[in-house]
Amino acid sequence: MTAVQKLRSMLADPDKFIACPGVYDGFTARIALQEGVDCLYMTGAGTTMSRLGMADMGIATMNDMKANAEMIANLDPSIPLIADADTGYGGPIMAGRTVAQYIRAGVAGLHLEDQVVNKRCGHLNGKELVSIAEYASRIKAAAMAREKHGDIVIIARTDAFQGYGYDEAIKRLQAAIAEGADVCFLEGVTTREDAERACKELAPTPCLFNNVPGGVSPDFGVKECRELGYKLAIFPCLAFEMVYPAVRKAVQQLKTTGNVGPAEENGRRYGPRELFQVCGLDGMIGFDQAAGGNSYAKGA
């Protein structure tokens, strides 16, 4: 099966829950793939911070996001990648172009939201939204592009809950379903009761939960998500939340002691070979040798 077929199969399996670790570059994606995950999630916040060194305030362009998604999706094309596509980066024509580009990049699923184009992270305050009609047109444009260019799972995200309330958020997601959305993403839900209610009211369309520690939503894990009726969950901060304290600690050690201590309490350090192996060193050498190359005849 293709990646998108595999994602659709998992969504259709009544016994399957999809937990997607958030990755933001090739190395974090390779680490997750090494652990045998079913699906990856490319975080927009992590992409913006890693590629641009800036906060997630609507700064990344479609080209920034698509380039990162294409690289990650093709590290292992058999593993589905769900990628943030923000607002679609413009009107219907641009939203359709974004979907077409993501399809060509090998992305299995993407989510589109109802914020204005100059958006911000869903767990910050002061978000502005487009009208429900404009939001529906984004989803319709995405579905039209999918029909023309190939398959992709369309995830409709609304940020209406915080500023406009539950009923308006559900109304927007129902409008998105009517225009062809496959999955619903109610951003910023704050209680178990509203989460469970949304999953029931939007059924049979599967719902996605966004796990953002320190954000506005509860820290629901896989067990809680299953109980509430969610079909999948993304953990966008998984990689960069862990990287931040580790790298910060190492830099502090270098400044204070003149050297870097072990990353783990057991005192183990990681050399280049092991780290390169995570990123395909052995397979690359094997490919070179199978093709008749001799660059690594004496090893590496």
Describe the structure in your own words:
With about 300 residues, this protein is of the alpha/beta class. The protein has 2 domains: about 5-240, Phosphoenolpyruvate-binding domains (TIM Barrel), CATH 3.20.20; about 270-300, no CATH class. It is built from 13 helices and 8 strands. Strands 1-2-3-4-5-6-7-8 form an 8-stranded parallel barrel, surrounded by 9 helices. α4 runs parallel beside α5 and α8 (about 165-180) runs parallel beside α9. It is globular, with a radius of gyration of 20 Å.
Number of helices: 13
Compute the gyration radius: what is it? 20 Å
- What structural class do helix, strand and pairing data support? alpha/beta
Q: How is the largest sheet built, in terms of strand order?
A: 1-2-3-4-5-6-7-8
Sketch the major β-sheet: 8 strands, parallel, barrel
CATH class of the largest domain: Alpha Beta
What order do the SSEs take from the amino end to the carboxyl end, as H and E? HEHEHHEHEHEHHEHEHEHHH
- Strand percent estimate: 5-15%
CATH architectural designation of the largest domain:
Alpha-Beta Barrel
Question: How many extended strands?
Answer: 8
CATH H-tier superfamily of the largest domain: Phosphoenolpyruvate-binding domains
Mean pLDDT: 94
**Distance between the terminal alpha carbons, to the nearest Å?**
35 Å
Protein name: Carboxyvinyl-carboxyphosphonate phosphorylmutase
Organism: Didymella exigua CBS 183.55
InterPro entries: ICL/PEPM (IPR039556), Isocitrate_lyase_ph_CS (IPR018523), Pyrv/PenolPyrv_kinase-like_dom (IPR015813), Pyrv_kinase-like_dom_sf (IPR040442)
Catalytic activity: (2S,3R)-3-hydroxybutane-1,2,3-tricarboxylate = pyruvate + succinate
